[in-house]
Amino acid sequence: MDEPTATFEFIGLTFDWTTILSTLLASAIVVLVAWLLTRHLSVRPGKKQNAIEYLLDFTNNIVGGQLSKSQARTFGLYAFTLFFFIIVANEMGLLLQIKFGDVTYIKSPTADPVVTMTLAIMSLMVAHGTGVKELGFGGYIKNMLFKPYAWMLPLNIIEQLANFLTLSLRLFGNIFAGEMLLTLVANSLAWPGHFNGFWSVVALPIEMIWQGFSLFIGAIQAYVFVILTGVFIAQLSGDE
Q: Which residues span the membrane (predicted)?
């Protein structure tokens, strides 16, 4: 089900306004919330500081379960930022969508495969870079492609491609499907083109239930993305 899009071209490339504006808004929300919660840090934390510290402890525990203590300290802030951005991006379209005409300009950025693939590439670059740093280039290649046995080279190459698809398409599929179903249910509220009492009674509770479920799924997908990032860092750095 294709939706109209607003695009522009720059240096021969085509850019989507929806993706750009939605990603910028999600990033701005993350920065604003983090700034508001950390404005007045104290040794006797208040509710705001407790909230940000709880979230930081939560993401530290995620990577702490996958990585060594030294690596968990190194990637703790990255995991926190990644989780914070993804959960905001996942939930944003469920709570806020802005349309002008037929074009939706604000929705969940992670409902666009370009965004989720970019996040996956970013995390995998961190994982591969860590592997080179920890093992050296030769050790990194051996660990990635020739373990546990050299004859598994084709399978290991396929695994690296699967890692990218696992990170990107799982996140995209869950968020896109959630928004799509909400849109279909919302449209049924006005079937066949105007307010209809019977369909509204049927569709409204379904939409509320599915929206709550989608919020839960959005949080779970952010959690899974960070876990898998930690797993890939551990695998590629030989820290399994």
A: 20-38, 75-98, 118-141, 161-189, 209-234
